[in-house]
Here is the input.
Amino acid sequence: MSKSIITISTHHLIAVVLLVSLPVFFVACSNGRSWYSAVEPAVQEAPHETSLDQEIRSVMEKGISLEERKRQVPVIEAAFAKKTTPERARNLAALCYIKTLGTPFTPLDMAEIALAETGGHALSSGATSSMGAIGVWQLMPRQARIHGYTPEEMRDDEKCAEAAVRALLSKLEMADGKMDLAKKYYCGKGPQAEAYLRKLKRIRKGLLAELAASGAVAMNTPAVIIR
Here is the structure.
């Protein structure tokens, strides 16, 4: 008799626990989407994905071919070499490639801005405009600070390139994704910005012509394996 009472009591206890837990379960289910969203990035991320893998994946998702990006680098280097030393031209061309990975920009975008800004000053990191803009990509001190850099760091080509990419990204947002307008905003507003945009377009036209010529040459040249 006592055994059956214990059994019944146990069953009642389980039933009570289930009844108490049921609302919690339904609340958890109703909030299941937000919980899943919170852990989703960790689930989606490849277990052994390096930062370089992430950058490459990001670029491919944007639909910009890595091969196309690489093809632009020698053209940029040749254009830079007309303004500065071969070694510096090579280093700056590499920055145009590396710093635009994972962004909506191509190396040509960075190259044309550099040529427009300091092409007449040997692409010098020491270049300073009459308005106070500094470095190859001519960031104003206030712009540098906004994007997390000191004005002095704009003398460092790598940091100047990073700041320029960040500045252009902010201008692209202001321009609702219109690239030409973003580049115009990079300069400023008014007649000076209009003239700047026309200059950029002339530079880009020349770079694209060289790129097209290099593609034609490549089609008629045996492939070279780069190690």
Q: What stands out?
A: DSSP finds ten helices and no strands in the chain. Residues 2-30 form the longest helix (29 residues). Confidence is low (pLDDT under 50) at residues 1-47, 218-227. The domain at 56-218 is CATH 1.10.530 (Lysozyme).
